[in-house]
Structures are given as C-alpha cells and as structure tokens.
Design goal:
The protein has about 170 residues and is α+β, with helices and mostly antiparallel strands. It has one domain. The chain has helices at about 5-15, 35-50, 55-60, 65-70, 105-115, 150-165, and strands at about 20-25, 80-85, 100-105, 125-130. A two-stranded antiparallel ribbon has the order 1-4. A two-stranded antiparallel ribbon has the order 2-3.
Length: about 170
C-alpha cells in the first residue's frame, strides 16, 4: 500500500510528531557492511562536534553543563538522546553527516521507528526529515516552564567560546 502525503502526515501525527517534515523515497536494496557500527560511532562523534552552531536549539533540551559539554565535544551523548539516520542504511542511506539528525529517544526516535516500520513493504516510503540537525517539536520553541537562566547563559557562553576557538 502506498501512502499519500496527507495519509503519511496523519499517521506521523498519530504517533505524536505532527510537525515533522516528510520526504518520499524509493527504498533501494543494499548491503550494510559489517563495520557499519564503528563507522556510525565515529560519525556520531564528528556530528556532535558540529552542534556548536545549534546552541539555540540545544538550549531547549535543558542539558546540564556536563551533559552539554560532553555532547558538543563528542565525548558522550546524554541519556534519552539519539542520533538518527534521515534515511536508514537498510533503505539506501549513507554513512554521512548530512544523513544524521538528533532527537529525544523517547518518544520521538521510538515513534519515528514505529512510523517507518509501519511502511515496510511499500514501494515508496515516507521518512521524517527535520529541517535542522536537531529535531524538537514546534511546541518546544515557545519556551518551557522555566529553568536555570544563569546556567543556560553559562552554557551558551561556553558554546560560543568553543565555536570561536574552532573558527566557526
């Protein structure tokens, strides 16, 4: 069964991800090499280090200072955070920085998997494809219930300094 864009948008909305842009792909049969995971881990490290240009979005994730620093240094990804493939390797995706994005593992990464799996066997598949490196729902952009403004400013200052040191 092939989903129309409207059907796919309704389905992903039912999974609680109503503002995620979708792209239609025709899956290609491919073989995933046995060393894919070690390459993926290395790519995640590199991807995390590029997040210094996304400090405004990272601020809405409310990481503490250690989590934030470990993330942007590429040392450790915080709990409940996933770095995902825009197009999974099994559907023809590539091990490239442009094929990655970050989101909360639960509920978003979990529900993205459910959405994709529900389409297996179709000739074309709709894949979530956020516009930015980090997916946060639009409702997050308006702010939350508050937080430690001093620590947020400190984290932003640290990120700005790291970006400056890297000539970004």
């Amino acid at each position: 069964m092939h989903l129309t864009l409207e059907q796919a948008e309704k389905k992903i909305s039912d999974f609680g991800i109503k503002d995620m842009p979708l792209v239609e792909i025709t899956p290609t049969k491919c073989t995933v090499t046995p060393d894919w995971f070690s390459k993926y881990k290395s790519l995640c490290h590199e991807f995390a280090q590029t997040l210094t240009d996304s400090v405004d979005t990272l601020a809405f994730m409310n990481f503490d200072q250690d989590e934030f620093m470990n993330l942007i240094m590429g040392n450790k990804i915080p709990e409940n955070v996933s770095i995902r493939f825009r197009t999974p390797l099994s559907l023809g995706g590539k091990l490239e920085l442009d094929n990655l994005f970050m989101c909360w593992t639960y509920p978003f990464s979990y529900n993205i998997d459910r959405f994709i799996i529900s389409q297996y066997g179709n000739e074309t598949i709709w894949l979530p494809n956020p516009a930015r490196k980090i997916y946060l729902p639009a409702s997050t952009g308006g702010g939350g219930e508050g937080g430690n403004g001093t620590e947020d400013r400190l984290t932003e200052t640290i990120a700005s300094q790291i970006a400056a040191d890297r000539d970004m």
